[in-house]
Protein: Class I SAM-dependent methyltransferase
Organism: Fundidesulfovibrio magnetotacticus
Amino acid sequence: MLAEALEHLLTPCPAPARRMGLLRESVAIGARHRRCREAWRPHLERCRAHILQAADACQGGGTALVLGSGRLLDIPLEELAARFRRVVLADAVHPLNVRWRARSLPGVRLDAVDLTGTWQEVLQGRLPRPADPALYRDLSPDLTVSANCLSQLPLAPLARLEAAGRYDADELEAFHRAVLAAHLDWLRTLPGVRLLLTDTAWPPGPRGDDPLPGLQLPPPLDAWDWTVAPRPEIHADRDVTHRVAAFLLRG
Ligand SMILES: C[S@@+](CC[C@H](N)C(=O)[O-])C[C@H]1O[C@@H](n2cnc3c(N)ncnc32)[C@H](O)[C@@H]1O
């Protein structure tokens, strides 16, 4: 608890990300990973292997862009930095250990961004129309990885909009779908190899069992189960497992 409180205190974080609860979430993911390290290992190794395979398929060694880089649990950062002249890590929050790892790797850049482009309006209590976030238009990445962040992108804005109490369920559902669709459409506009790693099913909850409502995806390259919370992390008598898949996106 003390380590988490210190990390929360010391991690540089832009105010909007802090207000959206993303710093708290980042610290919580780190703590859960420490508790569930063995259960997460197969999932994380599989993600890293898919990223390296996608890197092998790249024509050039110019730029790799990682969306939702977070704590780099599923990202082979050192290997990417050895293969690409520039590696851009894009997330709302870059934890202290990630900053430390990146320091010794020339060409690695950390961008603190809102990948949905919706926060400014959400924080003013307005319901935005999600669209291309207008990021990285001039980057020309050879490789882009959307790293297990897609299903997470709508959650913080939705929580905030729900708390505001001004929008009905249909409006919020439409917003949820639009955030997901905008991310996928944007990925498809980027050049180079595009790898999407994402949950595709999770246990029924307040938002159903589909993390990607309304989204049309191609057949996956691969799919597997991720034991997110082995018992008794959340439930004393059962594990919480998500279905995860890797997709190569075409234009
Ligand atoms: C489940 S984590 C992804 C795991 C990450 N690849 C790792 O290895 O730690 C989801 C990530 O999405 C990021 N995220 C969520 N919403 C975001 C947004 N609107 N803009 C940028 N990053 C966001 C979170 O900060 C978090 O790092």
Q: What stands out?
A: Residues 169-189 form the longest helix (21 residues). The radius of gyration is 18 Å. Residues 22, 26, 29, 68-75, 91-93, 113-116, 147-149, 152-153, 156 surround S-adenosylmethionine (CB under 6 Å). The chain has one domain: 2-249.
